[in-house]
Amino acid sequence: MAENIYEKYGNKIIDGKRIAAEYRAEIATEVAAMERKPSLAVIIVGEDPASQVYVRNKERGCAEVGMTSLLYRLPTETTEEELLRLIEHLNADSDVDGILVQLPLPSVRDGGSGIDEGAVIAAVSPEKDVDAFRAENVGHIMLGDAQLLPCTPAGVMVLLERSGVEIEGKRCLVIGRSNIVGKPMAMLLLHKSGTITVAHSRSRDLPALCREADIVVAAVGRAKLITGDMIKPGAVVIDVGMNRDENGKLCGDVDFDSVAPVASKITPVPGGVGPMTISMLLRNTLTAARLRGKK
Ligand code: NAP
After folding, report:
1. Residues 6+ apart with CB under 8 A from 210
2. 26, 168, 243, 249: which could form a disulfide with 193 (CB 3.0–4.6 Å)?
């Protein structure tokens, strides 16, 4: 991606950094008015470098909006029983509003004890499930009455809304069907009355599906899979992907250089969807604190 993209495509770029900063400032104002500050417990097992960065960013995000973060660093070889015991303790701790277990957990190949991620997700109490991964919360996303929102897809919705993108009646293509991005993304767009197609690795003729879409959300994990010739002129393109290109540079699923001239709006990587994801985690922690306060 060219260095001067903001100069070249400034009017087209959905600036995630700016929108996330505004959004966090709003959260900070709400937190400042609260007597008891929301608190987020973050558990990290092992030494995965990417996970360390994500956890550090989450801690920073909490500090930025005046929330408390409690970090639990567990060794790689931690057993499922030990992890579940800690989660149980945090579930019962009335000072903790949100619990987040950083995924992925270490695989057996990397020295992990083979913890079942499904069991870990199910162990977090539903009202502290700030990732919205539990089946109950996923069900609420489906019903359209979720209080705790799926962070990355909800962040995309904020970006679209604050960039003035209309969704109603538009043809939306979500590429990717993971539980944490693709599926809930499709559901949030559907609740805003978009006409939704979900593509995945078995979909036939992805370029043709892309060319029909007014809004494309790429959440695949393949560097520069989506190119300018696949995009309908004037489409809005949201790039969730976080990959490394051939030079080790961070890049998305979208080939920015060829897509930006064709699209009407586009998110860059970095500086697009990424900054919003943590903002939505902070929003969920605030919501969880409020909901618990009402009990
Ligand atoms: P995932 O669980 O690996 O899912 C990838 C999806 O892409 C799958 O549904 C897969 O289809 C589909 N896919 C793979 N190859 C494809 C192809 N050639 N054409 C069409 N679809 C294809 O990944 P994820 O967790 O959803 O994450 C997706 C990307 O978003 C990754 O780069 C990840 O790092 C990034 N991400 C970013 C953020 C952020 O905050 N910015 C947050 C979460 C994830 P099948 O189901 O058929 O295998």
Report:
1. 173, 175, 216, 226, 230, 231, 232
2. 168
Residues whose CB is less than 8 angstroms from the CB of residue 130 and which lie 6 or more positions away in sequence, other chains included:
40, 97, 98, 99, 100, 148, 281, 284, 285, 288
Rounded mean pLDDT for each run of 10 residues along the chain, 295 residues in total: 80 97 98 97 96 96 98 98 98 98 97 97 98 98 98 98 98 98 98 98 98 99 98 98 94 98 98 97 98 80
Residue 83, C-beta contacts closer than 8 angstroms, at least 6 positions apart: 43, 45, 74, 101, 105, 115, 120
Residue 269 Cα: closest atom of ligand 1: 41
Write down the mean pLDDT value for the chain.
97
Q: Looking at the CA of residue 220, tell me the nearest atom of ligand 1.
A: 7
The amino acid occupying position 173 is L
d(CA 243, CA 227): 15
Q: 36 CB contacts (<8 Å, ≥6 apart)? A: 289, 293
Output the CA 78–ligand 1 centroid distance in Å: 28
User: Would you state the pLDDT for residue 104?
Assistant: 96
> 61 with 282: CB under 8 angstroms?
yes
Spatial distance between the Cα atoms of 148 and 122, rounded to a whole number of angstroms: 15
pLDDT digits (tens, 9 = 90+) for 48-98: 999 999 999 999 999 999 999 999 999 999 999 999 999 999 999 999 999
Q: For residues 79 and 91, give the distance between their C-alpha atoms in angstroms, rounded to a whole number.
A: 18
pLDDT at 2: 47
- Residue nearest ligand 1's atom 35 by CA: 241
> In a 3-state reduction of DSSP, which class is residue 151?
helix
